[in-house]
Amino acid sequence: MNISALLTSSGINTAVCAVLFSFYSILRKQPSLVSVYFGQKLAQVRSKRNDPFWFQRFIPSASWIVKSWEASEEELFAIGGLDAVVFLRAVVFSIRVFSVAGVICLFLVLPLNYFGKEMEHKHIRDEQLSVFTIENVKEGSRWLWAHCLALYVITSCACILLYSEYKSITKMRLAYITASHSHPSHFTVLVRAIPWSQEESYSVRVAKFFTDYYSSSYLSHQMIYQSGAVQKMMTDAEKIYNMLKSNTMEQHYGSRLLRCGFCGGTATSFKILSPEPGNAGTTSCLDSPDLRKKECGSALVFFRTRYAALVASAALQQPNPMSWVTDLAPEPSDLYWSNLYLPYRIFWIRKIAILVAFILFVTFFLIPVVFTQSLVHLDKLEKVFPFMKGITERTFMKQLISGYLPSVVLMIFLSIVPPIMMVFSTLEGSISRSGRKRSTCIKVLYFVIWNVFFANILTEAAIDHYQDSIMKLGDPKTIPNQLAKAVPSTATFFVTYVLTSGWASLSCELIQPFPLLCNSFYRFILGNKDDLSYGSYTFPYHTEVPRVLLFGLLGFTCSVLAPLILPFLLVYFFLAYLVYRNQILDVYVTRYQTGGLYWPIIHNTTIFSLVLSQIIALGVFGIKRSPIALSFTIPLIICTLLFNEYCRQRFHPVFKKTPARTIIDMDREDEHSGRMEEIHQKLPSAYCQIKSEPSLGKSLELNCTEIEANDRESGDIIRLDDLEATGNISARLP
């Protein structure tokens, strides 16, 4: 690939980003799309019905960029929680590290790469990208010390920033724990694999067990029922009620004289019965006589103190570890009920099956990886398939195929990975929604690191030696050398991948294509105009965290070998900083969070990226026959691993376990202030498996006259600007 192909790809992606960013600034002003672009605000205020026409709705503006930039970290923490702050800290960390790397590599390493060999250079547009990589430095060059120096500077800067961030986020996590005084999860333990008995019900066995062994701290318990279908029916009923109510309020009332042919009522009136005790049809299935049959081998056990719950969750309850399994319960909004009533003994089988399925899926995905890499090397592909010469005779077509198409194809195939990994994590038996998303994040991270980085490098090495000998690549003695040669060559593909998958993914994140289509379907096909009934989304950490970490991996491994990737990476991280802040402030709703548990993933992946870049540089220095650079790289690897071990011992335990001292101090404070009794009274109602919706629990009779009166009382039409004046909204609208 030459500079012209890179500029073609860069121009296409820049144009796409500019158009989509401008399009977004217009779409976010449309009243009918409030539920798509302001889900965070719809969780706090009631939306408007209509909006008058004003010309500014159709003029692109950058006001959202200014407001995203001005938002403070405290505001982001209040809206998005600790996970949002941790994620944005990772983006800021990348900006800082690669800014330092960009200065030293673009002004020191890049000129040395370009003039590394005595050769006649072409015009800059016709130069191959390999000329700007370490591949162009001749063997035994005395200038390779500059590459080693750049590696030391980047590693030192990254480690200093990692230590500072790890220390700061650890303090934030401890503050998050101490600030959650009223969280019922601190007093609740989830018990699974309760032994079954014909003589006693599960509930009786739980009461006897914890009364015998935790008599001083046991408070009460609540059984888990096999009622997933019932809960889904009630949720669907709530959605249908909202849609019917919305449609009724939107009708024109000139036809209210029309009568129903069966009952004689108006065509637009309906009545929802209240679930009073006297209504025979509203009796819950959990109140039926066969309640014992609906119990499963899981229960939520409540303790009098946080410390007692912590001890009970960490202890092995019986010599058989497959029975009476205890864990600290997640928050009520975080609990994933569907996995609680499944038998605990099947989860280890599921995990093995999912591991096998994951390996098979990763292996299958090598097919699109090989295909995309073959598009990058058209000159070598034409030797194998001569009929392609006619297609690539045109310069623009060749630049388009080699510079833009490969990364687009790979990005399309990668779009199916997160949903599949989410299914895998669900089947593994996660008890919380945040835990399921975190598990999906780890799987997606492993997948993209292997298939985007390692698989592309191996494919590059295989294509490069296809004409010589395939067996040469399989020789274990030559694998390090072949990989060291393949990484600088593959860097040209990684540059285009950052352009396409990075810049374009941020544009799609802003536009929200899937919620936009769902909104159009509900509004124009189903006729539902109520913005509050569409639902809202939580931040997709399982897709965005792996993407940011993958680009960090590409930056660390290619910064010294192919510095030309750094400007494109910096543009991506700057755009990501603005886009993600905007999405957290306006779009996504925080229903649950992990309390900063994504940072250990970020830290470990960054250390892996640093060590991998050092190992690759070690192989390159060996190929280039630079013993000085080679000998200085080995201590750098050892120091990086020692730094990681120190951080693992110093900070990581806080993210795995809750400090007993913190919990005991919280218990003492609540006992002295008298809040403990109030917390105990709220515990049984906090975890309610089947909740009765308030809107369904009212007896409502809606007709045209009442609706017209309500419309008059609600006043005039509310504009988008009126939402900005609401006092309890942190983020603002244009």
UniProtKB/TrEMBL annotation:
GO terms for cellular component: membrane. Keywords: Calcium, Ion channel, Ion transport, Membrane, Transmembrane, Transmembrane helix, Transport. The chain crosses the membrane at residues 6-27, 86-110, 143-163, 352-371, 404-424, 444-463, 548-580, 601-622, 628-647. Pfam families: PHM7_cyt (PF14703), RSN1_7TM (PF02714), RSN1_TM (PF13967). It is found in: Membrane. It comes from the Eukaryota. Residues 186-339 form the CSC1/OSCA1-like cytosolic domain. Residues 5-165 form the CSC1/OSCA1-like N-terminal transmembrane domain. It is a multi-pass membrane protein. GO terms for biological process: monoatomic ion transmembrane transport. Residues 350-621 form the CSC1/OSCA1-like 7TM region domain. Belongs to the CSC1 (TC 1.A.17) family. PANTHER family: CSC1-LIKE PROTEIN RXW8, PROBABLE MEMBRANE PROTEIN DUF221-RELATED. This is CSC1-like protein RXW8. It comes from Forsythia ovata.
